[in-house]
Amino acid sequence: MINGFVLHDTSTAPSGSVEILNGVQKAWGFVPNLHRVLAQSPAALEAYGMLWDIAERTCFTPQERNIAYLAIIYENECPYCMAGHTNLSRVAKVEPEVISAIRTGGPIGDARLEALRQFAAKITRGRGVVSQADVAAFKAAGYDNQAVLDVLVLAATKLISNYTNHLADTPNDAFMKGAEWTPPGKLKPAA
Can you state the percent helix, strand and coil of the chain, rounding each to 5? Predict the structure, then answer.
């Protein structure tokens, strides 16, 4: 850990974070290190949890949501989230070759999912600035304006977690073993 961040638990976290940490423990069976770092700020911890819950209600299937998350994480170069979402993607039944392709910045064989990967990457890389052609290509793959905006929900969710992990150098959790990831290089764009 860097910058003075610590891994909080219910005995060390600010009082405003304790109930949230208890809820995470109940839902997940453990408290991920990301949440333990975020606990320093009850507002940040609550915001992340709320965005995570809202992201679950976007128009995307669990597989699509995880593909978009992985593409965003790749662009933001977050080793912690890539390891975590690699395993969460497996649980969501994302094909292993799809996960592998995104982890290396490569294309996905399925045209619709590749359009989602590319659009999520471009939104992240361009900080929301994409061309009309980028939006048109995403829509041509079968997505609509709701999906365009829902990608922003996913990007906002990952902004909090990816940036927190950069600031704190959050250590991986035990469930991430075997899914470790080294970013390809400072802001190297995906193919």
Answer: 65, 0, 35
Catalogue all structural domains in the chain, each as residue range(s) with its CATH number. 15-55 (no CATH), 62-176 (1.20.1290.10)
Interval 141-164: pLDDT, tens: 999 999 999 999 999 999 999 999
Burial class (CB in 10 A: 0-12, 13-18, 19+), 96: exposed
Pairwise CA distance, residues 70 & 136, whole Å: 22
- Per-residue DSSP letter, 48: H
Phi, psi of 121 (to 5 degrees): -65, -45
State which H helix or E strand residue 44 sits in.
helix 42-55
> How many residues does this entry show for the chain?
191
144 φ/ψ angles, rounded to the nearest 5 degrees: -135, -175
The per-residue pLDDT for range 68-98, each reduced to its tens digit, is 999 999 999 999 999 999 999 999 999 999 9
pTM beyond 0.70: the answer is: yes
User: Rounded to an integer, what distance in angstroms lies between the CA atom of residue 74 and that of residue 82?
Assistant: 7
